[in-house]
Amino acid sequence: MIACPKCGFSPDAEVTARWAFRLDKRIESANLYTVNKGNSRWRYSKVRDEWQWLVKKARIESRLTTARANALRRVTITRHYAGRCQAIDRDNLGVKPLVDALVREGVIHDDAPAWLELHVMQERWDSNETCIVVEELA
What we know:
- This protein has about 140 residues and is an alpha+beta fold.
- The protein has a single domain (about 15-135), classed as CATH 3.30.1330.70.
- The chain contains two helices and four strands.
- The chain has helices at about 45-60, 95-105; strands spanning about 15-25, 75-80, 115-125, 130-135.
- It has a four-stranded mixed beta sheet with strand order 1-4-2-3, with helices on one face.
- Helix 2 (about 95-105) links the parallel strand 2 and strand 3.
- The longest helix is centred in the middle third of the chain and has 19 residues, at about 45-60.
- The chain is globular, with a radius of gyration of 15 Å.
- The mean pLDDT is about 85.
């Protein structure tokens, strides 16, 4: 089967390893840290560092020993939202700090298309959280 030209998803890709993380933090709108001046100037790095600590904590608690990435990996990020929270426009989902945190933790090698096949979804759930599924592709 042919890979999707928009997202690169290939259902026939051989998955050699799979890891899942559930993080107790909700993905926010990218509008909160796109301004690079004033008081919000350092917000991006603060959010990225928060995500990095959550990824590190999840890996340690679940005793997942993911090898440092040296091959293409498929990452599916699902934003679960509950209560009065609403869905965010797809082009405004702020996953960049989370993806950068995954790179810093070695879960993925780089966020370039040669190293990362990224899929982002959101759905109503019982609680506000973020689920990450990492698959290493052959």
